[in-house]
Amino acid sequence: MSTPEHKQLIWNLIKDINVGMLVTKERASDDSMRARPMHLVQDEYDNTLYFYTPRDAAKVFEIQQDRDVCITFSDPQNDVYVSLTGTARLTEDKALIDKYWNDWVAAWFEDGKDDPRLAMLAVKINKGEHWDTKESKVVQMLEIAEASDSKGSTPDYGEHDKFGVSR
């Protein structure tokens, strides 16, 4: 799906943000959406994101009902925004749990790697979109002012790209 260069671009955009908002459909009958923060634990990206979770968390039950999820990353200070959509699944793969285990994760699981509630979410990304503005706020404001003065033009002050979908 994505080229190695594009995967690296996505990773470079999200790795320092480190926390994304995972959106699932709630178990309620009205299909309302729910978002919660999830902390990246991996040190590379190959179209799958991993997160530790208690197996009895609401998000696990929601994913069992509908595996389609969205995870967004936002760094307003640097004008970086990423929205990724994919399918989630629960995994109890011990090798994966060992690979990404760290002190931060240990704080959430009383019995460490042997905690019976411990599992991971694996989110296989199939499409996404990102915005990365390289220009300063002053240049952005000038672009907006210039675009508002000329009919049919829009501000152009950064990179915006979609992947995994027809453009």
Give short descriptive properties of this protein.
167 residues; seven-stranded antiparallel beta sheet; 5 helices; alpha+beta; globular
The major beta sheet can be summarized as:
7 strands, antiparallel
**Uncertain regions: pLDDT < 50 for 5+ in a row?**
136-145
Radius of gyration: 19 Å
Instruction: Label the structural class.
Output: alpha+beta
Overview of the structural elements:
The protein has 167 residues and is α+β, with helices and mostly antiparallel strands. It contains five helices and seven strands. It has helices spanning 4-14, 58-65, 94-100, 103-106, 137-149, and strands at residues 19-25, 33-39, 48-54, 68-75, 80-91, 118-132, 159-163. Strands 1, 2, 3, 4, 5, 6 and 7 form a seven-stranded antiparallel β-sheet that branches.
Give a summary of the structure in a few sentences.
The chain is of the alpha+beta class and 167 residues long.
Secondary structure elements and their pairing?
Layout (H helix, E strand, L loop, with lengths): L3 H11 L4 E7 L7 E7 L8 E7 L3 H8 L2 E8 L4 E12 L2 H7 L2 H4 L11 E15 L4 H13 L9 E5 L4
Antiparallel strand pairs: 1-2, 1-4, 3-6, 4-5, 5-6, 6-7
